[in-house]
Each structure stands twice: as C-alpha cells, then as structure tokens.
Design goal:
With 107 residues, this protein is α+β, with helices and mostly antiparallel strands. It has one domain. The protein is built from three helices and five strands, in the order H-E-H-H-E-E-E-E. It starts with a helix and ends in a 16-residue tail after the last strand. It has a five-stranded mixed beta sheet.
C-alpha cells in the first residue's frame, strides 16, 4: 500500500481529518456525504499518486458510496506536516473520462 494512503487511513482512524472548502463544494455538488467517504476509505483502491504536489503529497483513490457507486477521492497531507488527513476533493467519476473500472483514464 502507498505510504501516503497508509498515513491518511491512520489519521482517519484517529479522527484527524479536515475537509477543504473545495471538498465540501464538490461533495455537495455530487450529493456525497462525508460519512460515506470516511466509511469507505478503508476499502479504497489507489488510482494515482502525487508525492510532489506543491501543497503536500496527495493520492487519488477509488472508493464506493453506501450504494456501491464509485467515488474518486483526493486525500492529502499538508506540506511539511504529518496531520491532518485532508479531503481535498471528491466526485463521481464518469465514463467519458475514465475506463469502466474507474482506475484508468481514457486517452
């Protein structure tokens, strides 16, 4: 498992989570609840890794909501810090941009 994702999951267990303003906006737009994101985090599948992101390392993961529908979530750790896990954004991926497994981007 990816080191950043491991750290994020540990922080979630310890309830050290922050949802960015952008994250809240995107959750509301796609009718996703924070509780679903937190509950599904432990079943997340790594999609992409951004270790050198300027605001701190991030990962894009595929999770499922309570109805089993796919959700992409970007989790990050602030640069130079070890806490909290930041829910940067979350959205429902679409087949026009993603393969049917929602793990591979379409060319």
């Amino acid at each position: 498992m990816n080191r950043i994702l491991e750290l994020v999951l540990d922080l979630i267990k310890r309830k050290q989570v922050f949802v960015s303003d952008h994250g809240y906006d995107e959750l509301a737009e796609d009718n996703i609840f924070v509780g679903e994101i937190l509950d599904g985090a432990f079943e997340a599948i790594m999609v992409e890794d951004y270790p050198d992101y300027p605001k701190g390392p991030c990962v894009l993961v595929l999770q499922k909501d309570s109805q089993g529908k796919p959700i992409h979530v970007v989790w990050g750790i602030p640069k130079g810090e070890v806490s909290p896990a930041v829910l940067v954004t979350a959205y429902r991926p679409t087949l026009d941009r993603w393969a049917d497994d929602f793990i591979r981007r379409k060319p």
